[in-house]
Amino acid sequence: MHVVQIHHEKEGRKIALVNEPKLQIINHFKSVYELASFAIDNGGSISTLINNHLSDTLLDYDAIYNGNSEWVLLPAFDHPTNEHNLMLSGTGLTHKASAENRQKMHEAAAESDLTDSMKIYFMGVENGKPEKGIIGVQPEWFYKGNGSVLKAHGEPLEIPNYGNDGGEEPEIAGIYVNDKKGNPWRIGFATANEFSDHIMERKNYLYLAPSKIRNCSLGPELKITKDFNDISGKVQINRNGKVLWKKTIKTGEANMSHSLENLEYHHFKYKNHCLPYQAHIHFFGADAFSFGEGITLKENDEMSVEWFTMGRSLKNKLKIETEKGLMFSVNILH
Question: Would you say 175 and 121 are in contact if contact means Cβ atoms under 8 Å apart?
């Protein structure tokens, strides 16, 4: 099943089942978060809930996807009422190509043949896929932000005035909701562009953390599935209506140095990630990105990420904030 979230100025929020080339409205629930929370609390099946609440209302998916409708796509998942209760995070160095790109960025400063980045990747190769039920090696982990940084298909991704650069990170993200006791439940997966500042990161590997605190995009479709084994796709940069760069990409456990179970354990082992009714979007790493091949994105370049089994591609144009950042002081309460 593939589900989208949409919004209308008068009708408000809705969720809909993808039934190409139409979207079929799902009654009663206004968000995937609400749908999933109800299924968890009542011991039911999210797929059964969807089937039991399908309406007869069909919408033209092409018009909505292309921005020619009063309905607009929202991110495939969000927290509908509290952006502070949605954590965005990720796991890096899970794909060999990503580790190789990081190696190139930092090898000049390395004292040995392998940077710390490549060492972490090989630690995953050696012990990132232990037998089921066994804890494997810890992966690299980063914080992305809360729900305020999340953008939808068709919305621009912005380089802020304090940023050095911005580039696509074509990934798949896992979507999670915690139950009333704080136990995490995976709902499914969505196409994602994690979007990072690679020049800031290249200056010094200790700048990795601030280089990740940027906006990002998700969607347009949430795929409700357990399968995360071997997924193929393509990433593409379009400039002035022409293809500037493109690459085939692969993800899923068969193409990663860690098992999904191990990545999820190392994210949810922290008690502050297991708060009741907390929502999570977790990025699983990129197989390729244009910066690693010497591409610098410009204003209005379009980033396109497509995973062939994940529904329609995710497209976002680049926006560069031009106003100069001004120094400000924190208010003091006294």
Answer: no
Looking at the structure, do residues 166 and 306 belong to the same domain, yes or no?
Answer: yes
Q: Are residues 105 and 160 located together in one domain of the fold? A: yes
> How long, in residues, is the chain?
334
Instruction: Please state the pTM of the whole predicted model.
Output: 0.92
Half-sphere exposure in the Cβ direction for 323 (13 Å, CA):
4
Q: Cα separation of 108 and 230, whole Å?
A: 34
Residue 291: closest CA among 217, 191, 148, 194: 194
Contacts of 270 (CB under 8 A, 6+ apart): none
**One domain for residues 181 and 257:** yes
**Contact between residue 235 and residue 225 where contact means Cβ atoms under 8 Å apart:** no
Q: Is residue 128 part of a domain?
A: yes
**85 residue type, one letter:** N
According to DSSP, the residues that pair with 177 across neighbouring strands are 185, 279
- Per-residue pLDDT tens for 218-254? 999 999 999 999 999 999 999 999 999 999 999 999 9
